[in-house]
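Private note to self, pasted from the team thread so I don't lose it. Backbone tokens:
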């Protein structure tokens, strides 16, 4: 049985990725951050032997290492690591608009540094097996085709993630590690209140927002993450429709 660790697994794409891998017979370690949400607990009842819930806040090095230690107590290796957790922060439409720049560090800490913490802590468990590192990025971080006009901490953090992965790829690919860089598309993501309750999702003012449902993009991501490629010596951002993007 193959083992996978998935961050940001409480809801949306992360939760649907957990389902995809469970349905394929994998042992799944689901990183749980929103403890109030019951969705993973409910899924655990359906897959009691192959789903393990792991407390995981990728913004804090000590909790990432604690998660790695917990997984190491259950299995002798991890085949695949999927960094899906994301933070969104703040943005401004112009230099004169008031913005709290202190919020800009949050998505960077989660989206970019979180990925680096994850690899650092789990790499000792990935010396054998598939040795596959997977990351959910976004076209929002692609510099060459940037079309937005607001200054977005989310976009900037994804650009930083893409560069971090390029450097990581340069170091680890010669050692047999393979990489997946994935753009999920514009996904209809459920909102969660500060109290942890799931709010009515996927719509604003009665209109659906986003092009893809979470299960659609997860169904596209899973085979991309699992299947081998003839060109493992290249790092390419692939979207959920199979198209390649510059990054």
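Design output:
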């Amino acid at each position: 049985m193959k083992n996978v660790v998935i961050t940001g697994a409480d809801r949306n794409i992360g939760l649907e990725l957990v389902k995809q891998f469970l349905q394929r017979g994998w042992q799944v370690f689901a990183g749980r951050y929103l403890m109030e949400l019951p969705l993973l607990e409910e899924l655990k009842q359906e897959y009691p032997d192959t789903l393990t819930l792991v407390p995981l806040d990728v913004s804090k090095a000590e909790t990432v290492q604690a998660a790695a230690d917990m997984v190491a107590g259950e299995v002798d290796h991890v085949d695949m690591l999927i960094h899906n957790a994301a933070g969104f922060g703040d943005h401004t439409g112009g230099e004169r608009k008031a913005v709290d720049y202190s919020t800009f560090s949050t998505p960077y800490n989660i989206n970019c540094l979180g990925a680096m913490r994850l690899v650092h802590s789990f790499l000792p468990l990935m010396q054998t097996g598939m040795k596959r590192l997977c990351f959910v990025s976004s076209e929002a971080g692609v510099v060459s085709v940037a079309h937005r006009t607001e200054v977005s901490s989310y976009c900037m953090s994804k650009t930083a993630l893409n560069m971090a992965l390029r450097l990581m790829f340069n170091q680890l690919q010669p050692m047999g590690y393979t990489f997946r860089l994935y753009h999920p598309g514009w996904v209809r993501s459920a909102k969660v209140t500060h109290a942890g309750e799931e709010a009515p999702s996927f719509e604003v003012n009665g209109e659906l927002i986003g092009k893809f449902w979470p299960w659609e993009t997860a169904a596209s991501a899973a085979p991309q993450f699992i299947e081998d490629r003839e060109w493992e010596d290249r790092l390419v951002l692939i979207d959920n429709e199979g198209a390649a993007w510059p990054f």
